[in-house]
Design a protein that fits this description.
By secondary structure, the chain is an alpha+beta fold. Helix content is 33%, strand content 25%. The chain binds acetoacetyl-coenzyme A (CAA).
């Protein structure tokens, strides 16, 4: 019998502050509609000084452990573009913060926004080898571009945690996937930079070409036919990008990309991303959670997934929700999570960015701002100090 491997549980977390893009628009000398309509973004998460990819990732994963415990988890795969250390894996800090046993394998993966999908596929392979085991996948990122650059409107922060197992309670990860890799310079971040270099226009056209190539590889490998998909989730650097990508996919498949068709296929996947912003590795999976939380019953119906990481690697695959998946969702908690963020003024946001620690500037203790369970209390002797607070 073929093993059914997939997502047993999925949870999201985001940062403390919410910056309304209506406050950013005048600073950039543009109408808010450029962001709201042109990019499909209204609000972006801004992290507090005592939050980072580790605290966000641990906050997402903790929800899964609270429900399922840690039994059987033998590996943590932590995907991120915004790594905090060029050597030590963020997964090791998470192992400690979550109190997971020392017998857990903990590593970090990188390929821009694609890393979360690489982690999910590797997790499935590990579970295939040992079907009694479980793998904790975490995708966590803080998307920050240079101040006053055009990328600033596409910032954000979030983490997604997924428990991957055989007999999944949320969705089966379908076995076929189409992949595309090409060495292009559309977005990259050398280790000496805290913000990426980006060629925005090129990144959009490379993303669209990658959709086409990954889909063709998927088709060639005998995946689902286009008409079988009940929903579509895309990596969303900004939600309008999903519309551009889906337009390309519809056209390749001989379908008219009419506004009603685009809305019908995509509206449910954009609710959270529109108010969180880009979250790089987490973005596609925030879009999946949004689809599951807001969509019709998708039991037994494949959901198309398109992962894109600049540089670039893309993958087209699908997940199929299983009977009872709706009982596993946290829709109310997810909406509350977004609503609970503290609004921040533009000046407040700018001050935070100016003060952001870029390393090698001595010891620092951060004010307690986050109301989350995990916080970065400071840095001493270049060592990050994390606290877990029982709340
Ligand atoms: N009302 C409605 N729409 C308006 C408007 C208004 N008043 N003013 C402008 N617009 C529209 C424009 O027509 C345009 O729409 P189309 O793309 O459909 O033509 C849209 O708003 C954006 O306008 P611009 O192209 O002028 O915007 P920009 O120069 O500020 O650049 C960007 C946008 C390239 C996305 C930039 O924000 C950027 O570089 N972001 C970072 C890179 C990025 O997100 N790339 C995406 C693909 S790469 C990827 O996916 C990996 C990743 O996560 C980074």
């Amino acid at each position: 019998m073929t093993l059914q491997i997939g997502i047993h549980d999925i949870a999201i977390a985001t940062g403390h502050y919410a910056l309304d893009l209506a406050l950013l628009a005048p600073v950039h000398g543009v109408d808010f509609d450029k962001f709201r309509v042109g990019l499909g973004q209204e609000v972006q998460t801004v992290v507090a000084p005592d939050e980072d990819i580790v605290t966000l990732g641990a906050a997402a994963a903790q929800q899964i452990l609270a429900r399922h415990g840690s039994e059987g988890i033998h590996t943590i795969l932590f995907a991120t573009e915004s790594g905090i250390d060029a050597s030590k894996a963020a997964a090791v800090y998470v192992q400690d913060l979550l109190g997971l046993p020392s017998t857990v394998r903990a590593v970090e993966l990188k390929q821009a926004c694609y890393g979360g999908t690489a982690a999910l596929q590797l997790a499935a392979a590990l579970v295939a080898r040992d079907p009694g085991g479980r793998v904790l996948v975490i995708a966590s990122d803080i998307a920050a571009y240079d101040l006053d650059s055009s990328g600033e409107s596409t910032q954000g922060a979030a983490a997604v945690a997924m428990l991957v197992s055989a007999e999944p309670a949320v969705a089966v990860l379908d076995p076929v996937s189409g992949v595309f890799t090409s060495n292009v310079m559309d977005f990259w971040r050398p280790t000496y930079r805290s913000t990426p270099r980006v060629d925005g226009k090129l990144s959009i056209s490379v993303y669209l070409d990658a959709v086409e190539h990954a889909w063709k590889d998927y088709e060639a490998k005998g995946g689902h036919s286009f008409t079988e998909f009940a929903a579509f989730c895309y990596h969303q650097p900004f939600t309008r990008m999903a519309y551009k990508a889906h337009t390309r996919l519809l056209e390749i498949n001989g379908c008219a990309a009419t506004p009603p068709r685009l809305e019908a296929d995509l509206a449910t996947t954009t609710h959270y991303n529109r108010r969180i912003g880009n979250s790089y590795t987490a973005s596609l999976y925030v879009g999946l959670v949004s689809s599951l939380d807001h969509g019709e019953d998708l039991t037994g119906r494949p959901v198309a997934m398109l992962s894109y990481g600049s540089g670039c690697v893309a993958e087209f695959f699908s997940v199929t929700p299983v009977a009872g998946y709706r009982d596993q969702l946290r829709a109310d908690a997810n909406r509350s999570l977004l609503a609970a963020r503290e609004p921040i003024t533009y000046d407040g946001y700018r001050q935070l960015r100016m003060r952001a620690r870029n390393g090698s500037d001595g010891d620092v203790a951060f004010d307690t701002v986050t109301t989350g369970r995990f916080r970065l209390s400071g840095v001493s002797d270049d060592k990050r100090i994390y606290l877990s607070l029982a709340r």
